[in-house]
Amino acid sequence: MKFPNDRINQLVLLADKLIATNTNTPGIGSSVDKELFQEYRTASLSFIKNIYDTNHPYYLDFQKEVQSNWTYMAEQGRGILRAIKSEIEGGWLTTLKGLISAEIFSNFLEMAKYLIDESYKDPAAVIIGSVLEEHLRQLCIKNGIPCEYVKSEKAIPKKADQLNTELSNSAVYNKLDQKSVTAWLDLRNKAAHGKYSEYNLQQVELMYQSVIEFMTRNSI
C-alpha cells in the first residue's frame, strides 16, 4: 500500500538528485539538468495538487518559485517539499482533511436521510452516491493513488469505478467491499439517469446504512 509519505520521500530524493547535477557556467550562473528538472517540477506539482489543491500556498509557492532549471529554484522547491514532508509525518494532513471531510459528508448524509424518511428515494440515492464517490477520491489521495490520468496533455479525472478497482487492488479494502461499492455506484447511476423503477426505497435505505458503515471502516 502506498501512502503520501512514501511519495513525498521519493520527491525529496528526486530533488536531491536534481540539485547534485548543478553546473556553474561563468557569467551565467548555476543550473541543473533540464530534463530532470522538468520531471521534478511536474511530479511535484501533481502531488501537491492531489494532496492539497491548486489554491493552497504550497502549490502557489512551488508554481511561482520553481519555474526554470536554475539551481536556486530547485533548492526552493526542495524546501517546500520538506515542509510538506514534515506536515505529513506529523499527522497534520490526515487529521485536518479527515475532520473537514467528515463534517461535509455528515451534512450531505443527513440530507439524504431526511429525503429517505420523506420517501424521496431518487435524490437520496444521488446524494449518497456522490458522497461515496468523493470518499473514494479522498481514500486514493490518502493512499497515494492518482485520481487523474493524462490524455492529450490534459488531466482527466478517473471515474469512480476505476478508483474503486485501484483501491481494492492496492489492498486499501478487500474484494467484498469492492463488489459492494460497485453495486452502490450502480444504484446511484440508475437514479441519476432516471431509471427509477429499477430500485426501491428499501434498497436506497440499505445503501445509506451500508455506505456509512463502509466509510466508518475505511476512514480518511
| pLDDT < 50 stretches | none
- What is the gyration radius calculated from CA atoms? 21 Å
User: Quick one: CATH class of the largest domain?
Assistant: Mainly Alpha
Q: Main sheet: which strands, in order across?
A: 1-2
> Care to count the β-strands?
4
Give the helix/strand class. Answer: mainly alpha
Reported by name, the CATH topology of the largest domain is Four Helix Bundle (Hemerythrin (Met), subunit A)
Write down the domain tally. Answer: 2
Structure description:
There is one protein chain. The model has no long low-confidence stretch (mean pLDDT 87). The strands form two sheets. Strands 1-2 form a two-stranded antiparallel ribbon. Helix 7 (160-169) runs antiparallel to helix 8. Helices cover 70% and strands 6% of the residues. It is built from nine helices and four strands, in the order αββαααααββααα. It is mainly alpha-helical and 220 residues long. It folds into two domains: 4-89; 92-217, Four Helix Bundle (Hemerythrin (Met), subunit A) (Up-down Bundle). It starts with a helix and ends with a helix.
